[in-house]
Write a structure and sequence with these properties.
Blueprint: E1 18-26, H1 31-41, H2 44-48, E2 52-59, E3 65-72, H3 75-86, H4 89-99, E4 102-113, H5 130-135, E5 145-153, H6 158-168, H7 170-175, E6 179-186, E7 204-211, H8 214-220, H9 226-234, E8 239-250
Helix pairs in contact: 1-4
């Protein structure tokens, strides 16, 4: 998010076919500043430009990381929406303050749903207004928790990996108290907005699961499930490096919770 040059929210929409997972490394102690700017200024303005702000999160294990996701209707729509926002007045007014919190904003994965109904279902969800979020701190409340597991795979193995995950793990997650919020593979299309880099060399499968709170996550996270460990051992040969696990707490205005 680093190129140089109290309304009610829009109704929630179904899953976007193109999703960005963005992980920002921030200067020490600056995360709350960026969250305040983002939740107040960068949600409605990006959605007005033609994208969906899916969720924004504090990373529980990395205090200087801000993680967020946004979605687009297509790669062409992504190009148009990003151009409209980053060349628009809201970004121009607040980019210096936002960029001043950041060390790196280029850790970005471009994704597509792993199977037809694997994208985020945001129907029926709504976010609080900026004014309400500002008056009610979310740092002192018992939060829900979102876990994102990122699996780095050999080229050509992703469809089988996703299919086996769907067959073997989705029902087990629900049985163990977790909600599969979405599952994604790398989107192979070329970056249509090169002003914002992506990790184009990556080939990943990503599972996004939700838990009511940290206690539920501790009891039912993927790593604790025998079936998940067996699944991982069976797929070890197609991994190119160890999986990453992000434990995330939604901000007050995150749509995905």
């Amino acid at each position: 998010m680093n190129p140089t040059p109290n309304a009610m929210p829009k109704p929630a929409a179904l899953a976007s076919p193109i999703v960005e997972l963005r992980q920002y490394t921030l200067k020490p102690g600056r995360r709350e500043t960026l969250i305040e700017i983002f939740d107040a200024e960068f949600i409605e303005s990006q959605e007005d430009a033609g994208m969906t702000i899916i969720g924004q999160f504090r990373d529980l294990d990395r205090p200087d990381m801000f993680v967020w996701m946004r979605g687009f209707d297509s790669m062409d729509a992504r190009k148009d929406a990003l151009g409209a926002f980053y060349d628009g007045p809201v970004w121009a007014a607040h980019r210096d303050a936002a960029n001043a919190t950041m060390i790196d904003s280029d850790d970005v994965l471009l994704l597509q749903p792993a199977w037809p109904d694997a994208g985020f279902d945001l129907s029926g969800l709504s976010r609080s207004t900026a004014a309400l979020a500002k008056s009610t701190s979310d740092r002192n409340q018992l939060p829900s928790l979102v876990e994102i597991s990122i699996h780095h795979l050999q080229a050509g193995s992703e469809a089988d990996f996703a299919g086996r995950f769907r067959e073997e793990m989705v029902a087990r997650l629900a049985h163990n108290g977790a909600r599969l919020l979405g599952a994604f593979l790398t989107e192979p299309a070329a970056n249509t907005f090169p002003r914002l880099p992506i990790r184009a060399e990556e080939n990943v499968f990503i599972a996004v699961t939700g838990f009511h709170d940290a206690d539920a996550h501790a009891s039912h996270r993927l790593a604790t499930l025998p079936a998940w460990r067996a699944f991982g051992q069976g797929k070890q040969a197609v991994r190119t490096k160890p999986a990453e696990t992000l434990r995330l707490v939604p901000t007050a205005r995150s749509l995905l919770r």
